[in-house]
Structure formats: C-alpha cells, structure tokens
Amino acid sequence: MEKDKQPKDSNIYVQMGIFAAILFVSQLISDLFPKSFVVPTSLIAMILLYILLACHIVKLHQVAKFGDFMIGLIAFLFVPSGIQLAAHLDIMKKEGLQDIIVIIISTIILLVVIAYVGALVMGIHHKITGTKDED
Amino acid sequence: MANTIVTNLALPFTGIFISLIVYLIGMWLTKISNGFFLFNPLLVGMVLGIVILAIWAKGTGSTTAAVYKKFYLPGGNMIFWFLNPATMAFAIPLYRVNDVFKKYWFDIIVIMFVGGFISLFLIQLVSKLFGLSAASTASMLPQAATTAVAMPIAAGVHGVPAVTAMACILNAVVIYALAEFLIKVLGLKKLSAVATGLSLGSAGHTVGSVKALSLGEVQGAMAAVAVVIVSLAMDILVPIYAHLFM
Predict the structure, then answer these.
(1) Which of A109, B30, B31, B127 is most enclosed, with most CB atoms within 10 A?
(2) B161: which chain A residues are within 8 Å (Cβ-Cβ)?
C-alpha cells in the first residue's frame, strides 16, 4: 500500500514531539467547543494527524514507529477505563445485568445495521457508476 | 510508620502496578486457555482490578469507590492520559489504506452516519425495553466510537463514562466470541467487502479489525477506516440524537 520508498524512521524524540504538538493544538481546539457538544482532544488529534499525513506535511516515517507502538499498547491502556467502574458499583448492583444484556444486543445491532446499510449504499454506488464490487 | 505507608500507596505507583498485574494475569489466562473468549486480557483486567479494590476496601473498612479514588486513580490517570496519543495514532492505519478510503470516502461517510443513526435509535429502543435508567441509556449510545472518544461523549449527554467504557470492552468480547457465527448467519461473506469491513470495525473496535482482516484485505482496510469515521460520526450524532429524542 505504501507508495513512498520507505525512508529511515525519524528519531523517536521527533516522533513524540510531533504527537505532543498535535495534541497540544487539539486540546486548544477542543476547549472551544461547548459542554453540550463535546469534541474530545483525541478525536481532533486523530483527524488533524490524518489531514497532515494526507497533505504530506507530516510524512509516514515521521510518526509511524511511535504510532504503531502506541496502538500496540492500546488494550493495556484501556485497563484504567474499565476499572473506573469501581467508583460506580451502585449502578452495576442496580441494573448491571440489564446493562450487559443491552450491550450484547447493541453490538449485534451495530454489526447488522452497518453491514446492511453499507451493502445498500454500495449497491447504489455500483449501480450508478456501473462498476462491480471491489476485487 | 503506618501513615508513611498509606501516603506512599497513594502515589501513582499503586495504580500502575495493579493495572500491569491484572493485565498480565489476563494475558496469561488467554494463553493457557487457548483464547477462551471470557479470558480477554482487558476484561479479566477490569474485573480483577475491581475485585482487588473491593477486597482492599473490605480489609480497611472503607468503600470501593473511596479506595479507587485515593489509591488507584493517581496511577490509573497516568496510564489513561496515554490513551490520547494512542487514539490519535489510529490516523496512521487510516492513512495506510488511503487509496481505498479516497475511492469510497463519500459512501463510507453516508454509511456511517445513516447506519449510526439507525443504530442509535435501535439501541435506545432496546434500552427502553430492558428498563434502563436515563443515565445508563445515554451511556449506551456512543459505544461504537473508540473508548477514549466514547467516554467524553457519554459524559456530554449525562451518561456514565465508566459504563460506556465497559460497553466498549464488551463489544470487543462479543465480536471475538460471536464473529464467526454472525458472519455465517448474516451472510457477511457475500455482502459488499466495504460494508462488512466497516461493520466489523464499528461493532468490534480493534478486535473487529483483526476479524475483518481475516476475511480479506479490503475488509481489513475498511475496519481501519471505520475506527476513525465511526468515532467522528458518533461525536456528531449522539449529542444531536440525545437533544432530539431523549
């Protein structure tokens, strides 16, 4: 998929610096949104990084090594978010089982709805353009 | 002496140590059980971490919430902060499949917003059916977004971020356990590769991406796209939906 002939990875401090700089700007942008319409810093940072990569302002080799490392850690990084529930055990006692059932059903809802809406939209796309589903 | 120990236990060390230990136990259980779905390292880590804090609270005659705040949170927050650069890094797999994304970007955005809206409606309906409180229902809505994005969205619509985090973790567990079965029953192999990839990436987060990749290159690419676009879609849709229908 990568077109550019893999140049050498940038220095890891440069990579972290790029991440830190984008996060800082994203934090400033995130603060502009009102409380009723939260746009999380990480979402803004994700989109900014994509735009910078797509416009070739930031090159893949300048962020890929640190980024892949962080994505590799992500399951572990979610541990505190899960343990957070320790502060809300009252909710779990009251309706924990219902919550879990709804979550299981919701997962299947998301899978089914997006798959079939997707198939429908792609079907229309192929009809209009006269192309077939990809290779 | 006892005071010094208590003060030191309230340093970030404790939270980081507990997180590492429970996650390592989870990884070990996954390994020895050959990947039994309930031994997902993250799920084990979450349950075990809460159990440790609950036992700690019993032993010291305090509440679990108080022990969590005083001893776990300082370290937990440090790890939590690193979710920012890790979530941001999802832009990289998206850029790597930029060729496919550019080809179908308009369709993908339409699918995610229309599909996302219908899903929100159905999730609210199911929540009502099971008699969930307003706070829990609000927590259910943004679960398709990646955890670090879903939690602040939940907080914004008066949900409980902790419940949303649990939802995101369980999404991955459900997809891990049921993906093969659901792919067969729903005939996903015969559906458009773009649609299949997007649905697995949205419903199962990173675990869904792995499953999607096992179906094919386009599916895998679309799952990588889904992580970013569904987070964006949920961020815009959930507050609007909550404002209109809740």
Answers:
(1) B127
(2) 81, 84
